[in-house]
Amino acid sequence: MRIAMISEHASPLSALGGVDAGGQNAHVAELSAALAEQGHEVRVYTRRDDPDLPVVVAANGFEVVHVPAGPARTLAKDDLLPFMGDFAEWTAADWRGTWLPDVVHAHFWMSGLAAVTAARRHDVPVLLTYHALGSVKRRHQGANDTSPQHRVAYERQLGRVADRVVVQCQDEIRELIAMGVPRSSMALVPSGVNTTLFRPGGPAEPRDPARPRILTVGRLVERKGYEDVVRALPAVPGAELVVVGGPPEGRLDDHPYARRLRALAEECGVAGRVRLAGAVPTGDMPRWYRSADVLAAAPWYEPFGLTPLEAMACGVPVVGTAVGGLTDTVVDGVTGDLVPPRDPRNLGTALRRLLGDDLRRVSYAAAAADRAAHSYSWRRVAARLAAVYATVAGRTLSTTTDSPREAVV
Ligand code: UDP
């Protein structure tokens, strides 16, 4: 098949760990590479955010197309909506040439808008993965949510016009049903993990063997719950906490949230046991996971959550919050322990218990590595998705609703 991925803000070529570059970038990069490996032709359309970028860049068996839409510089993803019309026009024109996709898979709601508009011109089916839902974000972030005003309405409409909504976990199905998206249009295919890169054994970052290491990883944003992990640390005597993500280590002093975490660590009397490591290149991530005794993943909410899966694939148990994708990936009491979100007390207890029980940790570690390798390899995930693509290829978009943009604005 010829598969067009649309990922308006999340380029598969970006460095991860910054404010708007995380799981979606990794997902699009790995999925595209795995589909290409299985013989499909894949092109990823992403916004040109640097004037020096060539229009087409060859990546890992697939092509990345930089779409001129809006200024050629980095913009916050919440500011990209006005440029989605241009994005769609340019992409539709590109498909007028020699390369017409069999299916279009959009990642994130704004890509969905561009995908539906462009695909309609050519009668090509559209699949949508939301990656994150505006309704969930609004519930948790309230007034701090900077999403465009009509995001939730757009997402609802997109769920009704897309040929398939590819959901990543059970929790998302519940949310979408509540939004009125028909269950019959949903296909559950989780994200995956690169099991060649993320595997047990292999080199690890140096550490103090006398001191248990708790690792936590991701973009340095409030909803990832790092403050809860710092607050839990007094209940885990002797352990060190390493936080990976955010800007490069040398620029952490200028990062307001990094400063806030350091101040909190002082307040909790654990500053000497908390280390902020800054952004780590993806290729080095396995070394950091392998250096840890446990991954603490404490988001308030999490659409899927790659870091718990990456840790599991490296044979590291997870103590996580029972939210979103973690309730599917982490098997409570088998590959890790799940605790309620925003609850440092329970988090601290679970971490102390696990770090104090070698047998339990070793058995969680083995079960975690098995589960990640068998159920979440990209090869397996890509094959499942290709089967979903095949069911919609050749079918056209629903014609009962106008373009979601026109319908909502
Ligand atoms: N990541 C990375 N370097 C960092 C921090 C994070 O490569 O310094 C990667 C991490 O390995 C994972 C992704 O960024 O692949 C984060 O994905 P996740 O789904 O956990 O969170 P999101 O950022 O999508 O909210």
From TrEMBL:
<dbReference type="InterPro" id="IPR001296">
    <property type="entry name" value="Glyco_trans_1"/>
</dbReference>
<keyword id="KW-0808">Transferase</keyword>
<dbReference type="Pfam" id="PF13579">
    <property type="entry name" value="Glyco_trans_4_4"/>
</dbReference>
<feature type="domain" description="Glycosyl transferase family 1">
    <location>
        <begin position="208"/>
        <end position="368"/>
    </location>
</feature>
<dbReference type="InterPro" id="IPR050194">
    <property type="entry name" value="Glycosyltransferase_grp1"/>
</dbReference>
<feature type="domain" description="Glycosyltransferase subfamily 4-like N-terminal">
    <location>
        <begin position="22"/>
        <end position="192"/>
    </location>
</feature>
<dbReference type="Pfam" id="PF00534">
    <property type="entry name" value="Glycos_transf_1"/>
</dbReference>
<dbReference type="GO" id="GO:0016758">
    <property type="term" value="F:hexosyltransferase activity"/>
</dbReference>
<dbReference type="InterPro" id="IPR028098">
    <property type="entry name" value="Glyco_trans_4-like_N"/>
</dbReference>
<dbReference type="GO" id="GO:1901137">
    <property type="term" value="P:carbohydrate derivative biosynthetic process"/>
</dbReference>
<keyword id="KW-0328">Glycosyltransferase</keyword>
<protein>
    <submittedName>
        <fullName>Glycosyltransferase involved in cell wall biosynthesis</fullName>
    </submittedName>
</protein>
